[in-house]
Amino acid sequence: MQRSYVHEARKRVGPKRNRIVPIIERLLAAHPDATIALRFRSELELLVSVMLSAQTTDMNVNRVTERLFEKYKRPEDYLAVPPAELERDIFATGFFRQKARALRGTMKMLLEEYDGQVPRTLAELVRLPGVARKTANVVAAELGDPQGIVVDTHVRRLSQRLGLTRQEDPVKIEQDLQRLVPREYWGVFPHLLIWHGRRVCLARAPRCENCAVNDLCPSSRV
C-alpha cells in the first residue's frame, strides 16, 4: 500500500530532473534571506566558526565567537596560549577538548603549509585536522567556490521528502544532488533547504499547506 502510494505520488509530481530548477526558483523567492547563520569577518573566522559548529547550534557558536574573535585574530594566536586556555574559551560549544586539539592542529598546518592562509580547494581543506567533507564544503562555498553540496540533517530530510534521493548516507545523498542540482546553485541550495526545513518543512509536522513547492513534492499532504 505504502509503496503504491509513493509510486503514485512520484508519478503525480513528475521526474526529479524536471522539478529541480522550479523547486530552487520557488525556494529562492520564498527565502530570499537564506544564507549562512554563522557570523564571521574573515576567512579564518569562517573556518573556525564552522569547525566549532559541530554538534551545537549556530546561535551558540556566534555567542562564543563574539568574544573569541576579539582575542584570537591570527593562526599564531591559537598556538600562543596553553591548550587549557583555548579549551576554556570554546567550552560552551561542547566537545571542547577535541575542538581545541583540532583548532591547534589546523593553525599549525596553516602556518607551515599555507602561509597562514585558509586553502580554497576541498582536497586541501579536508587535510586540515578536524575538517571533514561537510565542513570543507561549507568553507569552500562561503569562499565563493562551492565544490560539493553540504548535506546536514535538514538537507538530508528535505532531499528525501522531495524525492531527490532515496539514499541515507550523506556522501551518497551529496552524489545524487550533485548529479541533479545545476552547478551554479550548489552554494545556495543547502541554505534554501535548511531555511525551508526550519520554517516550513518541519521534521515532525511539516506545514504543507504553507509550502511553496507542495505541488512539486511527492510527500505533500495537500
Secondary structure: elements and pairs:
Layout lengths: L1 H12 L2 H15 L12 H10 L5 H14 L3 H6 L2 H8 L5 H18 L8 H4 L7 H10 L10 H9 L8 H11 L7 H12 L23
Helix pairs in contact: 2-12, 3-9, 6-7, 10-12
- List the total number of helices: 12
Task: Kindly provide the radius of gyration, computed on alpha-carbon positions and rounded to a whole number of angstroms.
Answer: 19 Å
Kindly, what is the distance between the CA atoms of the first and last residues, rounded to a whole number of angstroms? 19 Å
Number of strands: 0
The major beta sheet can be summarized as: none
Q: Provide mean pLDDT, rounded.
A: 95
Percent helix, as a range, is: 55-70%
Protein described:
With 222 residues, this protein is an all-alpha fold. The chain has twelve helices and no strands. Helix 3 runs antiparallel to helix 9, helix 6 crosses helix 7 and helix 10 crosses helix 12. The chain is elongated.
Throw out a few tags for this protein:
222 residues; mainly alpha; 12 helices
